[in-house]
Design brief:
Rossmann fold, 8 strands, Dehydroquinate synthase-like, alpha domain, 2 domains, 443 residues, 54% helix, alpha/beta, two-stranded antiparallel sheet
Amino acid sequence: MALGDRPFLVDPAGFGPLCKCGKPHPTVDVRHYAGEDAFTVLADDCREAAGGSQVLLVDDENTHAAAGAMVVEALKDRGIDPVVETLSGDVEMTDATAERLMAGRGEIGLIIAVGAGTINDLGKYAANAHGLDYWTVPTAPSMNGYTSSIAAVKIRGVKRTLPARPPRAIYAHPRVVREAPLKLRQSGFCDILAKSVSDTDWRTESILFSGSYCPLPSAVVAGSESAYIPFPEKIRDGDSDAVTGLFDGLLLSGVAMTLAGSSAPASGGEHLVSHVLDMRESLTGRKPELHGLQVAAGVILSAVCYRMLSELEASRVGKGKAVPRFESDLKEIPAVWGPYADEVRERFLQKRAQLVQFDDLLPRHWDRLQPLFNAVRKPEFFLDLIRRTGFPMTLDAVRLSPDEFRTAALTARTIRERITVLDVAAHAGVLEAAVEEAAGLMG
């Protein structure tokens, strides 16, 4: 069976009835193969697809041991001698890293990434920049970016989400995914929990500004939730069905982002908290925790914000607050960001035009927003689920001091143009209180 005959991860023909926005959605044509012979199948497909061009395999020290070495062996057994780039286990995803990866390469025709978050983004971003085919070999159910059309890249110190083509094919070895370390499974569980709050962020922004919300991306993921949400203990214990369900849900979450044309269905204010923590690494000396576990702290914060907002009257979000709040936050940027202040300021200024409209738009639409706010699960619900995976979900467990959490939570809204619950909470005057409550819950 050739690559073109491998099954699609999702059936594109099934999307139509789920779309309610009437707008065109990007085509999702990712091929997916899962099986104990996944690496042999990959090698067979590669021999046919690569032709005479060179294959670049990217992994890191950890993922090479988990799967990369086996993929290389399978390729060599089929007469393919790949260029192998095994990076350090703590490599950072920056535009400079991607440039170094491709520097001096010859006729590369295909990039295969063997790994998870950073390795996946690195391969995807490099392939997109150079117009190359891209395949991925997941090594853990740790994040939802495998199938997305974006890559999280740090440019001039600021974490940005940039367009990148999804992989043409995914080759998943069930044992490799299932036997990923517990902490990686916990991270993936937390990352996909973010959908519960990010979807409301997207709906809120859509009501206020863009009208871009479509239920299709959320519906694509919703069908898989029953396979993992009720079973955090089984994910902790490495149960095959639960871990497979989690992994499939993460793949579909990436598809949801591709369908939306942005990360909005799976990434809102809660992800911005994690991005701030990553960006401040060189300023604080703190080593970032796994992406999903940092996102979990943002999920708790977002849930607290939504609970507080659901209890407010429209009069509390009235006129006269938007400009003073924006100017106040703008003045704080140099103290928080030091050498990165100019870049962050530039990002924050790009959403000033939207934020100053909050004085009029929030009171006008408050009655439409309140039901959305009320529907978000309480922070205790998320805390319970996460802790049942075996992760303590405390600030200490995420290697966060209360002060650093407060800094990240209060400044997260300044690093991106996207409107999230953090912006609404700031305008309503409850963000500071929400940060303190979230810190207390995770204290």
